[in-house]
Amino acid sequence: MKKKILLIFLTLPLFYNSQVGINSLTPQKTLHVNGSLQIVNELNLGGSASKAGSAGLSGQVLKSNGPGVAPSWQNLAGVPTSTGTVIVVDGQFMVAQEIAVQLTADFTASATLASTVAIGNLTNEIIDNENTFKGSSTTNSFKVSNNGIYQVIINAQLSTTNGSLPVIGIWDDTNNKWIARVNDTFTAPTSGGLQTYTLLTDISMSAANTYSFRLSNTNDVTIRQTSGGSSGTGPVSQVSLKRLK
């Protein structure tokens, strides 16, 4: 009897520290599942031998913390109400602020030798997932929700006088200066012709400031809403902003 008890006592640690494989004869971890897994209740992460782990909160996502460390639940900002691109900033998931707006009609501005004009008719909002953009027939403005680096894309088809110097870009209304711009001499091949100006850049922006999409020119200038021909017509002028980090 003593020999049986001793045998059980000696073999018990082998079972206690063994690895269990489901559909695996060579399990690599304490529990190795070679197949699908169905969970019909909460999934608890972390904890200890005597304390249950965290089931997280509704809407949180699972994040790996590297080898030898339990994964954790993390907030995914903007879910489920925001539309946009998921980015990671300082180790946290969030939906990047995005603005994309098209003209609803052509916009004409008078010559502005020493000033700029906020572009009007930017009222066809494709996306403004943080509701910071304001546009009307005569002006526009917006804010960024966080300090960061933002990608700016502006495409504008212009009609003006040959030899004039149109400028389009983003104006810092708070500090009264350009922070991103593109300019070039207007040289349409025919009178009344069109020329497209494109700005693609990444810039630092501050949540404390107000901004606007603007233009200036030495002569009257019109931004065209659409481009058309015998094969069809479609929108051509658009402004957009997207947070990168």
Question: In words, what does this structure look like?
Answer:
- The chain has one helix at 2-16; strands at residues 20-22, 31-33, 61-63, 72-74, 86-89, 92-95, 98-103, 107-109, 117-118, 122-128, 134-135, 140-141, 148-159, 167-172, 177-183, 195-205, 211-216, 221-224, 226-229, 232-235, 238-243.
- By secondary structure, the protein is mainly beta.
Count the DSSP helices. 1
Distance between the termini: 71 Å
Poorly predicted residue ranges: none
Number of E strands = 21
Envelope shape: elongated
Entry summary:
With 245 residues, the chain is mainly beta. The chain has 1 helix and 21 strands.
Record keyword descriptors for this entry.
four-stranded antiparallel beta sheet, 21 strands, single chain, seven-stranded antiparallel beta sheet, 42% strand
Write the topology of this structure.
Layout: H1 2-16, E1 20-22, E2 31-33, E3 61-63, E4 72-74, E5 86-89, E6 92-95, E7 98-103, E8 107-109, E9 117-118, E10 122-128, E11 134-135, E12 140-141, E13 148-159, E14 167-172, E15 177-183, E16 195-205, E17 211-216, E18 221-224, E19 226-229, E20 232-235, E21 238-243
Parallel strand pairs: 1-2
Antiparallel strand pairs: 3-4, 5-6, 7-10, 7-21, 8-18, 9-17, 11-12, 13-16, 13-18, 13-21, 14-15, 14-17, 19-20
